[in-house]
Amino acid sequence: MRSTDRTTQTTITEESPVEASGLTKIYRIGRTLVTALSDVSLRIRKGEFLTIMGASGSGKSTLLHLLAGLTEPTSGKVLINGVNIADMSDSVKTQFRRRHIGVVFQAFNLIPTLTAEENIRLPSLIENGGKSVRPGVLDELMQTLEIRDRRHHRPDSLSGGEQQRVAIGRALVMEPALVLADEPTGNLDSENSTRLCKTLRELCDTRRRTIVVVTHESAVADWGDRCITLKDGRITGPRSTGKQERTRNGEETESLFAEKETP
Ligand SMILES: Nc1ncnc2c1ncn2[C@@H]1O[C@H](COP(=O)(O)OP(=O)(O)OP(=O)(O)O)[C@@H](O)[C@H]1O
Ligand SMILES: [Mg+2]
Fold this sequence. Notes:
Low-confidence stretches: 1-7, 244-263
CATH architecture: 3-Layer(aba) Sandwich
Helix content: 25-40%
Strand order of the largest sheet: 6-7-8-3-9-10
CATH topology: Rossmann fold
Bound molecules: adenosine-5'-triphosphate, magnesium ion
Strand content: 15-25%
CATH superfamily: P-loop containing nucleotide triphosphate hydrolases
């Protein structure tokens, strides 16, 4: 098979769907160089729920955008099922992302002229005859995210938390194999935050979806199988999660929300 064929036919199926090696991102502003990410290597297993923590400016969003193929690395590469996403043409990459990767942006990036429901449906509307939303998924999502009664509102008449939930709905509506979420609970109250974490956990446990969540909240990070921390653009190490202290299917215990020591 020619490499271009492999590139266009990629779906996310392998056991290690995402691998980053030596990822470095340097921004240039005038004469100043900003190293946002420095030599980050990472392998994410299929069905894994990885969380990423770190101080503001440590490179979390940069890493997420690189994993999604939204930004090009200065050096290093991101392999999805062994295919370097930099080798995909822009149109293939865009279509691939729409079908297989759900991205929740830190700044939501909703379309202001569309209603909440239209924003959620957007990936399927753009598909134009391609993969469409499975019946029932839209309703279920709006129910889970508690935005059904705001479905006809445009973003400017939604609260910050509601906008965030719409952005999450848009990322999940195509039932992507890989979900990359940048501080998806940043504007949510604790009830909605817990509900979202449970939903993401379930997607991993029952459907083997791969989830990466950037968060500042240790209670959110504790829902993951593994947590890595970033400092000044480098991985500084794993951080323990509350995973060991709860059963996957049982109700969460208080220890899940307790602060954990960073090793
Ligand atoms: N487009 C850009 N041009 C120049 N510098 C940038 C750009 N985007 C990010 N940076 C810089 O790269 C560094 C990492 O930014 P990044 O957004 O990845 O941090 P973060 O960990 O997501 O922070 P936060 O928790 O505040 O969202 C920061 O110092 C930031 O100022
Ligand atoms: Mg960020």
